[in-house]
Specification:
Blueprint: H1 2-10, H2 20-27, H3 51-59, H4 64-75, H5 80-86, H6 91-104
Helix pairs in contact: 1-2, 1-6, 2-3, 2-6, 3-4, 3-6, 4-6
Length: 107
């Protein structure tokens, strides 16, 4: 639970102001990914993937398929546009769900 709370505490909050991808990476100790993930929030991750999902897949690349499947099941989609537009899931909830999936997978 601590990692989920860490992610939510840094998501768009001062002093960090991390985007969704950055906050997931930082919460799981992947500070090396924080700067590269700066351009992966707000639907700008490759192929329009949700940034929180993309960050989670970078934290545990060996479990990308499982992360993608669990995230898409929880949110009804994997792209930012579909999640926010059609399914009306807020970004903060995507961050929470991505972090929860990583915790479940043992990150």
């Amino acid at each position: 639970m601590k990692r989920i709370e860490q992610a939510l505490a840094t998501f768009r909050q001062k002093p960090y102001m991390y985007n969704c991808a950055q906050t997931v990476c930082a919460a799981f100790g992947r500070e090396d990914l924080v700067e590269p993930m700066a351009l992966c929030g707000g639907g700008r991750a490759p192929e329009g993937t949700c940034g929180a999902l993309y960050g989670a897949m970078q934290v545990m690349p060996e479990k990308s398929a499982a992360i993608l499947a669990a995230f898409a099941a929880a949110n009804g989609a994997s792209t930012c546009r579909e999640i926010k537009g059609c399914n009306k899931v807020p970004c903060q909830e995507c961050v929470r769900r991505a972090a929860a999936i990583l915790v479940e997978l043992g990150a």
